[in-house]
Structures are given as structure tokens and as C-alpha cells.
Amino acid sequence: MKQKQYVETLNYSLKRKSKLIDDEVQYFNNIPLYNWIEISPIDACNRKCVFCPKSDPKIAPDTYFKMETSLIQKLANELVEVGFKGTVAFAGYGEPLLAKNIYEMVKILSPVCNVEIVTNGDPLKPKIIDKCFDAGVNKLVVSMYDGPHQVKHFEELFSKSKMPKDKYVLRDRWYKEDEGYGLMLTNRAGVLDYGNKNTADNPSNMCFYAHYSMMIDWNGNIYLCTQDWKRKDISGNLNEKKLIDIWNSDWLKMVRINLSKGKRAFSPCKGCNANGTMHGVNHAKAWDKYYGI
């Protein structure tokens, strides 16, 4: 039996992300560096997908707050200081192309690192695609939720733009609930009622998100990872501190040591059922060495 196309898409996504994350551990003053930073440039989405917290305004209302370009400039300066060679992905808690200053933010970051935009594709037009390309986007990742007909639609849009085929990815996400909607669904750190909750202390619950990645919200608040939709446990704020100082904080030391042992008995990880071991095992080993454990 031929496997579902979305399985092939998921496997491709995992391999592509693994190449960006796992090939090499970067260091700054012997500190293992982050190499995947996700940014939420605007707190709003034009869709309300049933598998997303945005579908419930009581959980994740659209506020339309957006990130200031000056904060991206601060981030870019700090990434240069530490010799960052990883990826910054605009996605987060909304649809990034709804942020009017997204092109300016990409333009600031593109000379510094690999820059990606993950979009539901609704705002895309040839002119918008060209603006992304001109700003320096390395990859435009389009998640298609409506059906197979969207493939032709987006291929025609891109054919009318000047963006090369190797600069965009079309991901099929239009499947039914019993197929997980074609996604690697989680309960978003306990926000959604999806799947089994992990026990608080179990070696099989190891998670490496905090060893290689960070999540930056529109206001500069930094969270452990993209799964944290509660947005209550703040690692720090980029407006107030340097990213590298937040990254090497005592709070994150506690998080990493516990998660590398499968211990999730703290917020926001308690009850989270995300598989956090698909990437970052080499980063976890590097942090263990750095902490002397």
C-alpha cells in the first residue's frame, strides 16, 4: 500500500530541519549555541484551524500586537556578536505575513543567517512572493490546509514570481482528523486535549528543544519552545537582556538538566506530550559536557 503523501512530506520536513539543526553544534565562549530561533512577529491569524489553539479565543485570542523592527535589529546585532550560523524562522503564534513590517525584518536578518517564513499561504500573491524574495528569504514554507487543488494554485502563483523553486516548499496539511490532519500533532504543552499526557518523570520523556532552540514572541518575551502556547513561563525578554545571557541562564540550566533525564515536572513542560528528541541530541550532549554531568 502506498503511504500517504503527508507521511512523505513529514519525513522530508524532518530531514530538511535535521540538516539545518543537527549537522554541527555551534559554540560561543565554549557555550553551545542555539541554532534554531522561531519568531512570532504578530499575534494574529486569519485562520482558525481546529487543531490550533487559535481556534479558541479563550485560549489564544487575536490581539494583533506586532513586533517592532528595532527589536529585530537588536537581535541581528547580537547574532553577529556570537557568530550565529543557524536559522531564524518567522512563524509562531500567528500568520507572519500579516505583519506589515515582515519584509523589513527579513531584510535585516538575511545578511546574518538563514531566514525562513512559514505561512498558510492565504496572503500570497506574486507581488508578495517577490517582496519576500527581494528581502532575502531563504525558504518560504507554505502549509496547505484546504485540499490537493491548492498545489496547482500555489505552483501557478510561484511561476508568476521570480522566486526559484528551491526557495519554497509546499506542505500538504489537508487531511482528516483520523490522519492527524497530516501534522505531527501535540497538545501544545497541555493547552489542547490531544493525545496522552506524559508522566512527569520518565526517561522516555526526554526533550531537547531547550538545548538548541528558542521562541521569541512579538514583545520580546522568550519561551522554551514553540510548543508553549500558555506563554506564562518566560525565560527572559530580549528588550531587557542579551539573548546569549538568557540562553545561558540558571533557569535554562535547570530545564535542560531535567529534560535530558526525562523529567517534566515543571511548567510549561508538565503534561506536554511533544516528542522533543527528533532533533538536538548532539546539542544535549554538548550541554551535558558544559555542565559537567
Describe it for me?
- The protein has 293 residues and is α/β, with parallel strands linked by helices.
- It has helices spanning 5-21, 69-82, 102-109, 126-135, 149-159, 209-212, 243-247, 250-259, 281-291, and strands at residues 27-28, 31-32, 36-39, 87-90, 114-119, 139-144, 168-172, 213-216, 221-223, 236-237.
- The mean pLDDT is 93.
Quick rundown:
The chain is an alpha/beta fold and 293 residues long. It is built from 9 helices and 10 strands.
Summary tags:
293 residues, alpha/beta, two-stranded antiparallel sheet, 10 strands, 31% helix
Shape: globular
Low-confidence sequence ranges: none
For the secondary structure, the number of strands is 10
Which class do the helix and strand fractions yield? alpha/beta
- The total count of helices amounts to 9
> What's the gyration radius in Å?
19 Å
H-E order: HEEEHEHEHEHEHEEEHHH
Largest sheet: 8 strands, mixed
> What does the average pLDDT come to?
93
N→C terminal distance: 46 Å
Order of strands in the sheet with the most strands? 7-6-5-4-3-8-9-10
Strand content: 5-15%
Helical content class: 25-40%
Task: Break the fold down into its secondary structure elements and pairings.
Layout: H1 5-21, E1 27-28, E2 31-32, E3 36-39, H2 69-82, E4 87-90, H3 102-109, E5 114-119, H4 126-135, E6 139-144, H5 149-159, E7 168-172, H6 209-212, E8 213-216, E9 221-223, E10 236-237, H7 243-247, H8 250-259, H9 281-291
Parallel strand pairs: 3-4, 3-8, 4-5, 5-6, 6-7
Antiparallel strand pairs: 1-2, 8-9, 9-10
Helix pairs in contact: 2-3, 3-4
